Amino acid sequence: MTPATANGLKNFLVSDAHRLGFSACGIAPGEGDVASAERLDAFVAHGRHGTMDWLPETADRRRSAKALWPDVRSIVVLGMNYGPDEEPLEILGRSDRGAISVYARHRDYHDVVKGRLKELAGRMIARARQAGLGEHDAKVFVDTAPVMEKPLGAMAGLGWQGKHTNLVSRDHGSWLFLGSIFTTLELAPDAPGRDLCGSCRACQDVCPTDAFPRPYQLDARRCISYLTIETKAVIPQEFRAAMGNRIYGCDDCLAVCPWNKFASRAQEAKLIARDDLRAPRLADLLALDDPAFRTLFAGSPIKRIGRDKFVSNCLIAAGNSSNEGFVPQVLRLLGDPAPLVRAMAVWALSRLDPADALQRRPAALDSEAEPMVRSEWHGLETNED
User: Fold this and answer.
1) DSSP of 109-172, one letter per residue?
2) Range 75-101 average pLDDT
3) pLDDT digits (tens, 9 = 90+) for 194-238
4) I want to staple 34 with a disulfide (CB 3.0 to 4.6 A). Which of 9, 148, 226, 315 is the partner?
5) Which residues pair with 177 in a beta bridge?
6) pLDDT range class, residue 148, cuts 50, 70, 90
7) What pLDDT sits at residue 6?
């Protein structure tokens, strides 16, 4: 490929990426190891992946792009801005509402980004063919394959992995969805991003559950995003109060990053927050049965965790609200078919009306067979403290 042809193809890629709604585009080499493979090894070795067993199971394929696809020569890494149009942490002061992470207040980004990636990849291959470069191939990935998107984004010059382990961009702050196009084309790589975190500790200090053992390291087992989304296990009691009204994900470490002063609002219509998910009423969410949950969150990433997990998160928020108005709904959910929901209803009642919870305990233990629910009833004195 001549320099003129390579430059022309790259200019086309960047221009077409912006046309398709991507805010950032860079090229990473297909050769070599992913820069943060050692971080991944340490993360798994310390058990910080929690119940996400797919991480150690796919660790070998994450070490290099060629381990995933031997024919890859270059990787086009793209970022789509999803910057919020309001202060994302303001919702934390409204205890009657549920706080949903900015990324999940709209259409599932996987569907939005993947469709655009496929279109861009197809046009790139066609343009290469027109330029006389022969037949080439491409594969697209968005967060569901064993691809290390954040280090690849840093290698492609989109930004750097900050102390909160997420990608930070000088131009877009912390609000970028990442996707990649692996291709057999050999494209000139961009210069990698430079770490500009400096001495800042804002993301470390704001974390409500102390999920960062040290800068650039995350213990997922303590992260509210992991606790409310990834794990199906009962959320440990030590983290419940710190969750506040966060019912799906957590934006604290992203929102306080000083580089967000350069961030802009999302321009893609499908990534603009739905009005009904900006500050949903906890009372409405606690009333959801499975069909209503599926209807409300159709097309949303929230749908994948299921109604039982979601309502259990909402019960923790209700328990943290100090609002006795939630007690009737909590009492109803003590009889829910889902053990996880019943368990968190016990905890919520113990926070909102501890005397009533203790009074109900003997009869509940006589009829309750599920260990996780019985454990919550047995732990009432601890909850009360």
Assistant:
1) HHHHHHHHHHHHHHHHHHHHHHTT-----EEEE-SSSS--HHHHHHHTTS-EE-TTSSEEBTTT
2) 94
3) 999 999 999 999 999 999 999 999 999 999 999 999 998 999 999
4) 148
5) 80
6) confident
7) 63
- Contact by Cβ (8 Å): 14, 31: no
Q: Is 239 left (phi over 0), alpha (psi -120 to 50) or beta?
A: alpha
Rounded Cα–Cα distance for residues 237 and 348 (Å):
11
Does position 181 have pLDDT exceeding 80, yes or no? yes
Instruction: Read off the tokens for 140.
Output: 């697209």
pLDDT grade for 385, boundaries at 50, 70 and 90 = very low
* CA nearest neighbour of 56 among 38, 37, 40, 32: 40
Query: Distance (Å, rounded) from C-alpha 242 to C-alpha 220?
Result: 15
Q: Are 184 and 73 in contact (CB under 8 A)?
A: yes
- Identify the top-confidence range among 3-12, 64-73, 124-133, 220-229: 220-229
Q: Within 13 Å and on the Cβ side, how many CA atoms surround 47?
A: 0
- Taking the C-alpha atoms of residue 70 and residue 154, their distance in angstroms, rounded to an integer, is 22
Q: What would the two tokens of residue 359 be? A: 């009074």
Average pLDDT over residues 98-110: 92
**Cα distances (Å, whole numbers) of residue 325 to 282, 286, 320, 359:** 11, 12, 12, 19
Nearest by Cα to 113 from 74, 79, 137, 84: 79
N- to C-terminal Cα separation, the chain = 70
- Measured CA to CA, the distance from residue 82 to residue 273 in angstroms comes to 9
The residue annotated as part of the active site, out of 16, 41, 96, 143, is 143
Residue 143 bears catalytic tag: yes
Q: What is the DSSP letter of 238?
A: H
What global pTM score does this model have? 0.92
Distance (Å, whole) CA 71 – CA 138: 10
Distance CA 79, CA 275 (A): 24
Amino acid at 122: G
Nearest alpha-carbon partner for 327 in 298, 290, 356: 356
Angstrom distances, CA of residue 185 to CA of 65, 71, 334? 14, 10, 58
